[in-house]
Design goal:
Blueprint lengths: L3 E7 L5 E7 L4 H7 L19 E4 L1 H4 L7 H7 L10 E3 L13 E3 L5
Parallel strand pairs: 1-5
Antiparallel strand pairs: 1-2, 3-4, 3-5
Bound molecules: FE2/S2 (inorganic) cluster (FES).
């Protein structure tokens, strides 16, 4: 059985949904599996669409690998404001340490 943690997805309006996230899935896959419509993920995780843009809290940023150059390039094309904590959720892998963390979704993808 795959191990799961709880992740929270929060919209800019403040609506929060809590979902079960499988460790090893990407945050994007977790969003799609749980009908989080704010994550579009047009390219299915191939790092060519930028429609899986999310904002992360400091506690999450602190425990995940930094974005590589390809992700940083794609982040230049995001539809909503790019912020220091912007990431593409297809490049962020769910880990046990992320249990209870909140993923913030932008209004536009
Ligand atoms: S799903 Fe397309 S870049 Fe993440």
């Amino acid at each position: 059985m795959s191990q799961e943690i709880v992740l929270h997805f929060k919209t800019e309006e403040g609506e929060t949904r809590s979902v079960d996230a499988v460790i090893g899935d990407s945050v994007m896959e977790t969003a799609i599996k749980n009908d989080i419509d704010e994550v579009v993920a047009e390219c299915g995780g191939s790092l060519i669409c930028s429609t899986c843009h999310v904002y992360l809290d400091d506690e999450t940023v602190a425990i995940i690998p930094e974005a590589d150059e390809a992700e940083l390039d794609m982040l230049e094309g995001v539809a909503s404001e790019r912020k220091p904590n912007s990431r593409l959720s297809c490049q962020v892998i769910v880990s046990e340490a992320m249990a209870g963390h909140t993923i913030h979704t932008p209004n536009d993808q």
